Amino acid sequence: MSVITITRGTFSGGMMLAECLSGRLGYRRIDRDALVERAASERVSQQELRAALEETPAFPGRFNHKRYVYLCLIQAALMEEVRAGRAIYHGLGGHLLLKGAPALLRLRIIAPMDFRIRMAETRLKLSRGEVIAHIEKVNRDRRR
């Protein structure tokens, strides 16, 4: 199984890198949305699964059974997606969800802040100050 996971700082160009690598290597590209869609069912919505990936736990160290189950569903969906190998996953937690998997290359992208600000200004249509505040908030939340 040959799998690449890409984690990145907010607006660091992880999706662009995944698209480029996918084209050059002929690997399937899997993103968070495809993963959540695959893991969703009649009993668990895509919104609940996204929240399990994105939201900071209310009380660090406190066990949340429902969130644990949702993350297990997401992990199972990702393992199914990469089972045959030749895949690139870019999204939250891929390096953790596939921890211990054989033939795994983990990439971490951190772009210069000026690049990230330009990318966010274009995509979000916010002022420079609002973009900086947004990037800092997202990064802070992800560190938690």
Number of separate strands: 4
Low-confidence stretches: none
What is the CATH top level name of the largest domain?
Answer: Alpha Beta
Share of residues in strands: 5-15%
Mean of pLDDT: 86
> What global shape is seen?
globular
Helix percentage? 40-55%
Distance between the termini: 31 Å
Gyration radius (Cα, Å) is 16 Å
Arrangement of strands in the largest sheet: 2-3-1-4
Q: Spell the H/E element sequence.
A: EHEHHHEHEHH
> Architecture of the largest domain, according to CATH?
3-Layer(aba) Sandwich
Largest sheet: 4 strands, parallel
SSE-based structural type: alpha/beta
Instruction: Give the tally of structural domains.
Output: 2
CATH topology value of the largest domain: Rossmann fold
Number of helical segments with 4 or more residues: 7
State the fourth-level CATH superfamily of the largest domain: P-loop containing nucleotide triphosphate hydrolases
Description:
The chain is of the alpha/beta class. The chain folds into two domains: 3-111, 3-Layer(aba) Sandwich (Rossmann fold); 112-144. The protein has seven helices and four strands. The protein has helices spanning 14-25, 32-39, 46-54, 65-82, 94-97, 113-124, 128-143, and strands spanning 3-8, 28-31, 87-90, 104-109. Strands 2-3-1-4 form a four-stranded parallel beta sheet, sandwiched between helices. The mean pLDDT is 86.
